[in-house]
Design a protein that fits this description.
CATH topology of the largest domain: UDP-N-acetylmuramoyl-L-alanine:D-glutamate ligase
CATH class of the largest domain: Alpha Beta
Number of strands: 20
Radius of gyration: 23 Å
Strand order of the largest sheet: 7-8-6-9-10-11-12-13-14
Structural class: alpha/beta
InterPro entries: Folylpolyglutamate_synth_CS, Mur-like_cat_sf, Mur_ligase_C, Mur_ligase_C_dom_sf, Mur_ligase_cen, MurD
Helix content: 25-40%
CATH superfamily of the largest domain: Mur-like, catalytic domain
GO molecular function: ATP binding; tetrahydrofolylpolyglutamate synthase activity; UDP-N-acetylmuramoylalanine-D-glutamate ligase activity
Number of domains: 3
CATH architecture of the largest domain: 3-Layer(aba) Sandwich
Number of helices: 17
EC number: 6.3.2.9
Protein name: UDP-N-acetylmuramoylalanine--D-glutamate ligase
Strand content: 15-25%
Subcellular location: Cytoplasm
């Protein structure tokens, strides 16, 4: 079989290497420049590739096309493939054909990375033969080459789900559905929601779908009457059908044969959104047979991914938290809601059409200072000018941190939670978060 792979990033090169080991005739094409690390892998495996162009004739001579998730279905080369009835699939769909491992798949607009990392941590600490893959930044296909794992915990974006057809998860998790990437879905929430729900496709009664019963968009889109798997709703708001929920600090799982009560008192995760993330991960762990006490021990040792409500310093009784990944209003809402101390809030960047009104009540209650970090801060100043007592602005993250330190009193939290994209002053949210951490380190060293 001839396989053409479009995109030579992590997923594309991983799929190419797997295809080569399975005896397929594979060709890799990337319209952009290919990173040296990926060129080296392709060259080592003697896989032909091109960069800076798509040779249409060669690509359309394939029996099947695997495209990287960043390439939209509207791309001309994909449209040509569809006209010729050439199947277009994702890396996950392709990789799953070559393993008997079971898949635990996690998606959602927000929270999927934390939930994926926590789920993996709980299962690995319980001794399961499990690996991590997908949107987290690791190629599933490349890991399938060795085929040494019994389970994969896979983070899935909607873009990955769009080109998955026969794939089936053993356990699927849907955290939430809020407007995002709607340009890829004709500005249709219905189409975007349908993409997310593909995580639960092809399920049978022996498979489990954990979903947020408090999310209105999930409730609207999920057709429970025609669902073939076992539904496992989780809820913080007392949903009657919930099988995973909080009782005080305990998470209760009530699914028959998998019951459990897990104390989360020693978890370091902050905020309401992390209660949802923890419910989902604990629910998966119970379905995988992990004992309550083993889950509790693992919750204590979990460290979240960088830039997600990450504690990065403590000096003069002031806590510094890096939440640079919070690039939308909803993510900031969860950060403000979850922190109980007075907050000095560093926000700003490239506005994404934000409506800040939902943050007004929390800001009035908790934020004592707003430091606007960006080239254009007018929208932030207008939104919070009559709500937050002190507003300052700067284009220097070092100054933002120094100013926050000077205005903070013991017990305060200095929170970087921008609500905006980073591209006016930084390369990306990781760069912004790293620069914040470096600025905080200077403060901590002087304490």
């Amino acid at each position: 079989m001839k396989l053409a792979i479009l995109g030579a990033g992590e997923s594309g090169v991983g799929a190419a290497l797997l295809a080569k080991t399975k005896g397929l005739e594979v060709f890799v094409s990337d319209k952009n420049e290919i990173k040296e690390q990926y060129k080296a892998k392709l060259a080592m495996a003697a896989i032909p590739y091109e960069e800076g162009t798509h040779t249409t004739e060669r690509i359309l001579a394939a029996d099947q096309i695997m495209k990287s998730p960043g390439i939209p279905d509207t791309a001309p080369i994909i449209q040509e493939a569809v006209k010729k009835d050439i199947p277009v699939i994702s890396e996950i769909e392709f990789a799953a054909r070559y393993t008997q491992a079971k898949f635990i798949c996690i998606t959602g607009t927000n929270g999927k990375t934390t939930t994926t990392l926590l789920t993996y941590h709980l299962l690995k600490n319980a001794g399961l033969n499990v690996s991590l893959a997908g949107n987290i930044g690791e190629s599933l296909a490349e890991k399938v080459i060795e085929n040494k794992y019994d389970y994969f915990v896979v983070e899935l974006s909607s873009f990955q789900l769009d080109n998955m057809y026969q794939f089936k998860a053993h356990i699927a998790v849907l955290m939430n559905i809020t407007p995002d990437h709607l340009d890829r879905y004709g500005n249709s929430m219905e189409r975007y929601a349908a993409s997310k729900l593909r995580v639960a496709q092809n399920m049978t009664g022996a498979d489990f779908f954990l979903f947020n019963a408090d999310d209105a968009n999930i409730a609207k889109a999920f057709d429970s009457a025609n669902f073939g798997g076992t539904a496992m709703p989780f809820s913080l708001e007392g949903a009657e059908n919930a099988k995973v929920y909080f009782e005080g600090k305990n998470i209760r799982v009530t699914e028959k044969f998998y019951e459990g009560t897990v104390d989360t008192s020693n978890s370091g995760l902050i905020g309401k959104h992390n209660q949802y993330n923890t419910m989902a991960a604990v629910g998966v762990a119970k379905l995988m047979g992990v004992a309550d006490q083993d889950i509790e021990k693992a919750l204590e040792t979990f460290e979240n991914a960088e830039h997600r409500l990450q504690h990065v310093g403590f000096a003069k009784e002031v806590t510094y938290i890096n939440d640079s990944k919070a690039t939308n209003v909803e993510a900031v809402w969860y950060a403000l809601e979850g922190i109980k101390q007075p907050i000095i809030w560093i926000a700003g960047g490239v506005d994404k059409g934000n409506d800040y009104s939902t943050l007004g009540e929390l800001a009035r209650e908790k934020v004592k200072v707003l430091v606007c970090l960006g080239k254009d801060n007018e929208k932030l100043k207008q939104a919070f000018g009559r709500i937050v007592p002190i507003i300052a602005e700067t284009t220097s993250i070092d100054y933002a941190v120094r100013l926050s330190r000077s205005l903070a009193t013991p017990g305060d939290v200095v929170l970087l939670s921008p609500a905006c994209a980073s591209f006016d002053l930084f390369d990306n949210y990781e760069h912004r978060g790293q620069r914040f951490k470096e600025a905080v380190e200077k403060i901590v060293l002087k304490k």
